[in-house]
Amino acid sequence: MFIRVIGSSLFKCLHEFSRARQGAHLQFPCRARSCHGNSNFLHPVMLGSDPRMSGHKHRRRKSCYHSNPTSLTRLQCTQNGAIRGEEISTIKQFILDNTVVTRNHLTPEVALRLMTSSCRLWSAPSEQSSSILAHCGIDEPFWAFYWPGGQALTRYLLDNPGVVSGKSVLDVGSGCGASAIAAALVGAKSVLANDIDKVAIQAVKLNAEMNSVAMTTTSRNLIGRLADHWDVVLLGDMFYDKDFTDTVTDWLRCLADRGTEVLIGDPGRIFLRDHPVRDCLVNIFTVDLSESCRLENNGMTQGFVWKLQA
Ligand SMILES: C[S@@+](CC[C@H](N)C(=O)[O-])C[C@H]1O[C@@H](n2cnc3c(N)ncnc32)[C@H](O)[C@@H]1O
């Protein structure tokens, strides 16, 4: 019923979650109903209660994170959480078949494989797109969209190469990989693209290759990890849940205290806007979103880049 109300496309399904929750919070896609059915589905990746949301407490799971039982038909992970080689090929083929290369966003310097209106899943009836995704073992394809917070952050990096040039960079929640790619393009010494969605990791790899940049990737949950040092940590559009915002910002404060430059791209989502961490954020960049981006993101009009003060 919900799906019918909002329309049939997968795109709408992902992007109109927040509209469905307007009564509660006017927030992000991740915490509302899923395109996998009509039940209230909370994306496991986004939940504070999910063990993957507290990196230091993270324990390896025998199956991959896809919680939908049907999705396990294809993406059965090995004992240590890795995806098998043939499954990587399946994922890559899925990405190639269901995205197009586009530069139609705020950072045309970066070519990205994204799901656009010319892709079959965009306009397929939601039941059909859900079934295709489930058959391929793909959960919500957040990596197939270039989120407004990520667009702002990436634009900032391309316009200000000195911020990352010659530095070690971690991009947390990399999605399609745009910010990580931009960092590599403008001369970062090393780039680690991190996303706990293993499908996103394959999207990042395809996009990095297409832009002829090198980087390493990991699907480990790094949140809470203090053992490594990064000169710069990037987060594009990651604040969509209060518990998650609490956890991540605690970690980010520790990193900033240790000398890491923490840069956050966000289009004004309430969990960041109304969070106490806001008092420690300095706005260093603002950009107007494109008309299509505004439409796709519930009328959000601008993207902001914030620097976390130590
Ligand atoms: C809204 S998307 C943003 C993607 C990209 N940064 C952008 O702006 O286009 C959020 C991404 O964060 C990832 N994610 C969620 N929780 C995470 C965690 N604990 N560690 C790393 N990635 C995470 C999701 O899989 C998803 O790809």
TrEMBL record:
<dbReference type="GO" id="GO:0016279">
    <property type="term" value="F:protein-lysine N-methyltransferase activity"/>
</dbReference>
<protein>
    <recommendedName>
        <fullName>ETFB lysine methyltransferase</fullName>
    </recommendedName>
</protein>
<keyword id="KW-0808">Transferase</keyword>
<comment type="similarity">
    <text>Belongs to the methyltransferase superfamily. ETFBKMT family.</text>
</comment>
<keyword id="KW-0489">Methyltransferase</keyword>
<dbReference type="InterPro" id="IPR050078">
    <property type="entry name" value="Ribosomal_L11_MeTrfase_PrmA"/>
</dbReference>
<dbReference type="GO" id="GO:0032259">
    <property type="term" value="P:methylation"/>
</dbReference>
<dbReference type="Pfam" id="PF06325">
    <property type="entry name" value="PrmA"/>
</dbReference>
<dbReference type="InterPro" id="IPR029063">
    <property type="entry name" value="SAM-dependent_MTases_sf"/>
</dbReference>
<dbReference type="GO" id="GO:0005759">
    <property type="term" value="C:mitochondrial matrix"/>
</dbReference>
